[in-house]
Every structure is written in structure tokens, then in C-alpha cells.
Amino acid sequence: MRPAETVAAPQRPGLSVPGSVVLLALGMFAIGADGFVIAGILPDLATGLQVPLSRAGLLVSAFAFTYAISAPILGAVLGGKSLRTILVASMGVFAAANLAAALSEHYAWLLLWRLVAAMSAAAYSPAAVAAAINLLPPEKRGQASSFVLGGLTVALVTAVPLGAMLASASSWRMTFVLIAALAATATATLWWVMPASFQSRNLSLKERLSPLRNSNVIWALVSCFVWMAGGIATYTFIVPISLSATGWSPDKAGFVLLIYGAAAIAGNLIGGRLSDFLRTPVRALQYFLCTHLASLLLMSLAVFSGPPWGAWLFPVAVAVFAASGWACTPPQASRLVSLSPPHAVQVIALNTMATYLGMAVGAAAGGLLSTNGPLLFIPLAGAAAQCIAIWMVAARGEQRS
Q: What predicted TM-score, i.e. pTM, was given to this entire model?
């Protein structure tokens, strides 16, 4: 998500700062659950709405594309507004959109409410980081933003496998009901605890896009788009792919997602430490992308082999796939900031945009592949994308602005 863009404001007397930051993270948790949960409930959702897997997968594309496009626009439109107003209004709309999604009887209505949820998430996320930074003293602002954004990672580990299990035991609709309840709780409590005086910084759309004048920044963003597209194509359909590789019953899908989430947290930690140790984010990025490529090839082997060998190979492949994919985030951020130091906030925001565009294209591509061929084609296509990304990083990785 985009880094904070704020001016300091006084705190409300008696405000519990740690509790307020937790509430901001709760909203991010709900957004993370909503963004990732489709992968866990994809087969149940497709069956319930009587649509093909590929069409159900487009719900991921629609959410990601809408988020990517609306984030800079909403950031410019809402600049200078009260952060409390932005937080409460966006999270309230997000809660209503998820409740409406749970009640949708037709695919078109569900798609519409996913778009609304994506736009509200795009408004909430940067405002939440901004508010957290204003709530704590300067020496703790890094911890504040990390804690709030950590809500996304926690959602990946807990909410996604829980959503898959809930969908298997009850209905995919209950997953959206749970997300709506979390968002409604965050909405009500944020209205009560957040000071009305916090204001967001006013940056025009032109200022937000200004780093794109640097061709090296564009190259780095495109490489991120490519590896994200390849990875998300596989992640979106990871449940049907896992069932094909392992021969397990659908109720064990939550186990695969739990492995993915735990490995993702480990990978994110490893990515930052190795990048700092090597003192060159490009080299760390190359290592992680090569490992990501290897994991997709191992996953393809597991699908090709099928049970019983696939049941042993696939969990290992998923763990390496998640760890290496999420390990790319810290060195990519460092790489972008080094390419355009005066525009650190903007380049990280643009990287988020490239990430979500990659998610949109990857989920759509995975859907096309699932419709027109065996599931084996999806991780193989993901591996091909990683090869392109590795070449792109190596070709211009060390250049500066």
C-alpha cells in the first residue's frame, strides 16, 4: 500500500495511541482478507454462482485493476481532507459492499460490489498509514506504518485459510459476511477514537505520477508487473491446482493456504534482511526471483506427477513459492527509492499500482489458461513470466536516476 502523506496534527487528549493503531490495522486486516480470500473460496464460489472457474477468477482481476487505477485518483481528489472522514467513510462503504456481495444472487452483482469494495480500499489504505504515523512520535512512525500494513499479512495467514474452511463448512457467502462484520467494527470504533483534526497532504495527480519521467523507474515498475502477473496467475487458482497435484479433498484447501501464509511472512522478513546484508537490493531481488522460478517449476512437476508424489512435492513448492515471492517486496522498495530518492513516497505508491495491475492481468491470464488447457499450464506460464522478470532486473537493475 502507499506510504503516508500527512502533516502533523495534535493528538486528542486521553486517546489510546496503541489501541488506535490496532483499530487501523483491523481495517487493513479486513481489506487483506477481502483481497486474498477469493483464491481460497474460488471453487465454492464458482459452483454457487454456476460460473466457470475462469470467470470467478475475474473477480480478483476486477478488484486489483480497480484498486490500481482508483488509488492515485482518489489520493488526489481526497488530498487535504480529514483523515477521520476518509477512514470512516471508506471503511463504512467497504463493509456495506461486502455485505451486499454476500447477498448477491448473480455474478454481475457480485462483480459490481467487488469494484465498490476495491475503490473504498484504495481510499482507506494510505489514509490508515497516514493516521498511524500521526498518532505516534517521529521515532516510532516506522513501527506504526509497519504495524498497520502488517494487518494485510496477518489476513493472509489467518483470514484466507479460515475463509476457505468456512466456505467448505457453510457457504462462500459467510466469508463475505465475516469480512463485513470486521469492517463495520473498524468503522464504528474509528469514528469514536480518531481525531478530526488530522489532515492528509494535498498532492496533485501530476505530482504523484512525476517519477514516471525516469525511464529506469518505469523499467523497474514493469519488471514488478511481470513477476506479479506470473505469481498471481498461480496463486488465484492455487486451490484447484493443489487438488489436481495432491488428490486431496476440497476441505484440505485451507492447509495449503496456511502453508502459503506462514511462508509469506517468513519470506518478507528474509527479504529485508538479505537485502540489507548484501547491500544491493538488485542482487537480492535476482536471488529471490530465481528461487520463485524454481518453485513454479517444482509446482508444475507436482501437477504433472499427480498423487502420490504430488502430495509430497506440492506443499514444499507452495512454501518456497510464497516465501520467495514475498521476499521480493523489501528489495524492490529499496531499488525504487535508490532510483529516485527525491520521490520516495511517489515511487512506492507507483509500485503498489504496478503490483495491483500485475494481479489483475495475472488472474485474468490464469483464468484463460484454465479454460483452454490443463491446470499445468498456469504454473508453467508463471515460470515463463519469472524468466522475463529476471532478465529485466539483470539488464538495468543497477542503474540510478
A: 0.84
